[in-house]
Amino acid sequence: MAQTGTRREQRAAERRRQILEGAARVFAEKGYHRTTTRDIAAAADVAEGTLYNYFASKDDLLMGLVGELAQLDRQQAMLDEALDQDLGTFFRTYLAYRMGHTGPYQNLLAGIVPEIVHHPELRERYSRDFIQPTLAMIEGHIQRRIERGQLREVDGPLITRLLISMMLGLQMLLIMGDPVSQDAWAHPERLINALTQMIIEGVR
C-alpha cells in the first residue's frame, strides 16, 4: 500500500509540474490577463477539469508558479548550510543559485509581475506567502552570524530589505529591457563579483 501511495503521489507531483510548466509558457506568451484556464490546459496537454483537481483558479496557478520560483525550502536549506561558510563564499553561492534559477523565467516574470502589483488580493498573497517568509529567513541568517561573531552589529531587518530590493530592482531593470543590466546578467560571474563586493563591504 505504501508503494502504491508513493507512486500515486509521484504521478500527482508530475502532473502538477506539467500543469505549471504549461501555465508558465502561456503566461509568458500571452500575459496573465489574456490567458484562460482552457489555454493552460491545452498547453499542459490535460483536460480543463484535470487542471482544477490541482489548482482552484488561475490565481492559484499563478501563486504555484511564484512558489516554484521562490523555492522557500531550498533557500532555507542553503541558509542553514551556509553558516559555516565565509561571507564571500556564501553570497557568491547564493547569488549564483538565484540567478541561475530565475534567469530562464524573465519573460514569465514580465508577464506576471504587473498582475501581482496591480491586484490587491494577489499582492497580499504574494507578500504573505513568499516575501515575508523570505525576509524572515534572511533576517534569521544575519542574526545568527551576528551571534557567532561573523558580522558586526547591524540593523538586520533593514539590511535584509536592502539586499532583497537590490535583487528585485535588478530583475525589474531586466524586465524593462535595460541594456546595461542585460549585459551584466549575460556575464554572471562579473555581476556576482560586483554584488558580492558591494554587500560584503557594507555588512563588514
Q: What is the SS-derived class?
A: mainly alpha
Unreliable runs: none
The H-and-E topology, N to C, reads as HHHHHHHHHHH
Per DSSP, what share of the residues sits in E-state strands of 2 or more residues?
Answer: under 5%
Q: Major sheet: size, sense and barrel closure?
A: none
CATH superfamily of the largest domain: Tetracycline Repressor, domain 2
- How many helices does DSSP assign? 11
Number of domains: 2
Radius of gyration: 19 Å
- At CATH level 2, the architecture of the largest domain is Orthogonal Bundle
- Say what the CATH topology of the largest domain is: Tetracycline Repressor, domain 2
Structure summary, number of beta strands? 0
End-to-end span in angstroms?
Answer: 55 Å
Fraction in helix = over 70%
Gross geometry: globular
Give an overview of the whole structure.
- The chain is mainly alpha-helical and 204 residues long.
- It folds into 2 domains: 2-55, Homeodomain-like (Arc Repressor Mutant, subunit A, Orthogonal Bundle); 64-203, Tetracycline Repressor, domain 2 (Orthogonal Bundle), CATH 1.10.357.10.
- The chain has helices at 2-30, 37-44, 48-54, 58-70, 72-81, 87-102, 106-118, 120-147, 156-175, 179-186, 188-203.
- The longest helix has 29 residues, at 2-30.
- The relative contact order is 0.10.
- The model has no long low-confidence stretch (mean pLDDT 85).
Can I get a quick summary?
It contains 11 helices and no strands. The protein is mostly helical and 204 residues long.
Question: What tags apply to this protein structure?
Answer:
single chain, 204 residues, Arc Repressor Mutant, subunit A, Tetracycline Repressor, domain 2
